[in-house]
Amino acid sequence: MASLTWMRRCVSAPGVAVLAWAMLTPATGWGGTYNLVIDQRSLDIAGQSQQALTINGSVPGPTLRFREGEQVTINVTNRLKEDTSLHWHGLLVPANQDGVPGFSGFKPIKPGQTFTYHFPIRQAGTYWYHSHSGFQEQDGVYGPLIIEPAGKDPVQADRDYVVMLSDWGQDKGATIYRNLKRKSDYYNNRPVTVGDFLDQARQQGFSRALDNRLAWGQMRMMDSDISDVSSGYTYLINGKSAVENWTALFKPGERVRLRFINGSAMSYFDVRIPGLKMTVVQADGNNVQPVSVDEFRMAVAETYDVIVEPQDNRAYTLFAQTVSRSGYARATLAPQQGMTAAVPPLSPVPVLTMADMGMAHGGMDHAGMDHSKMSMSGNMAGMDHSKMDHSQMAPAAMPMSGDMAGMDHSKMDHSQMAPATMPMNGDMAGMDHSKMDHSQMDHSTMPMSGDMAGMDHSQMAPAAMPMNGDMAGMDHSQMDHSTLPMSGDMAGMDHSKMDHSQMDHSKMDHGQMPSSSAAVTTRRSDYAPGSGLEPKAADGGIFLVYGDLTALQPYKDYRKPDREIELRLTGNMERYIWSINGVKYSDAEPMHLTLGERVRIRFVNDTMMMHPMHLHGMWMQLDQGKGAFNPLKHIVNVAPGTSMTVDIPVDAVGEWAFHCHLMYHMAAGMFRKIVVDRPASAAGASSSSGNPASDHGADATMAAGGEQHAH
Prior knowledge:
With 711 residues, this protein is mainly beta.
């Protein structure tokens, strides 16, 4: 057992295999102490000697291995010439141990000092740790963190590897940020060319291609702007470039667990292993019901654990290409060192569409823009569209959503609109369509969802128009619903005069309908209809979507939320300012939550970028219609032109960071402080007793843990 004790108490290099028997051996009373040193040194990265910030002399830092239930002590020594910190990404720790300077009394670790973290390990799974000071994470201060479960791991494997993805910049983080502030497309490696326009003209027709190009030009944006930093990066797996080819070994027939961690500052990856199916068993450290896929997309800071079972005595390529297709990280899974497999070519470069321009443009500064070809959504109450010429609009995938109450469309000419797949979502109560000429509109496949209370569709014949959401009060008395699928809250609808005689229920399959303990099986995209970012697996395979994730065990305290907060993800591309509800962090007030409540957060992405939103200290339960089996996440990717709903079980007192995990978006203002207070009565009782508040069940001493001293 000596070697086992050593393994649990030490740190190891990323990607080193851990034998399954060791992972499953029970232990009690662990109290590991770990020593980490943050320094600067020259390293060979991608074949070049470069200055890097390191943890214990390496990039990434060593793999920390804890066991659920132990109390850990981590001594972090700062040998830099600037302040530093370490944040335990995804871990449920006391607020003042979370490692964010200025939050809950945590102070940055000064040069020459050592700070000692103390906290209990209350979970198991795959996580990581990184600096939360300046741009140090980009420059090398990050590493994997693995927590063994207290009991038997439900995921059985013969071998276990960490696969940590990252983006190494030729420029230092501070330089990258400064360049983006000067020119937001500074690192766009694929400006639009004449050749691109000619290709689009061949595909779309010259007139439509020209209209699209003019629209992007008026917005002073590029449809190739997939990632803010798509040049100047080398993509790494466990610190190794594609040429260096990090290799994991297996024997044919073994079950191999791969713990993927996206430790990038800015890069999303599409991950696949040609020739092997992957069974996803964990997401963001939480076990999920196994789902077999061919490919998955990793937002920045997400983690996914997969099982692969290679049967042949040959090598396989772990291929992780960036969403912008600017490059890839590559490693090899092989029976022996030195074996390699073919590296697939990069997939076609995605091109943004108007669907990716956001559900509402209130959050983006597009002064002088021609909106005639733009998607419309969000809060457009009171907008006068009476003089808008929609005659040339062909919004095949133009989402209209949000609160559009009070909009006057009475003089709009929709005669040329063909919204074949134009989803209309949100609160459209009070919209006056009484004088609209829909005579030429084809509604045959136009999905409508949201709150459309009060709308009169009495003359409409939407043959295949799915309606979702709250449509209370709608009069459908003269509508032909013979093929109209409906879902959502339709309380108050008058169906008394509806003719259901033609509805055929004989082929309806109720066996897959979700209950409180059953998963939704319908696969729904995480992207807006018509999005250019919609992922597609190679060779017609299966691409993981959030709807595939079902918690292995139900969340014990699942209930309806007590209240809802809408957070609109907003920005100004020209000035490179990112914000929430139009307000950047430096100008924002903290968000206050109360211990014990359950708060629903509705993200609405009003920008053309994907945003991986991260909450410190508490889980977000991603609403996928599965009730208690909705998965728990610490990162959720909110795609352009979409909304996403999560519930937060508010169970940790303190000040917590809530932000986009794209490093330069966070730095530019897409960040909030969340303050979790005790209920007024409980706070008064605590104050009168003289006992300080504690977090996550830790006692007062543990909650106040952490020591800092000169070294």
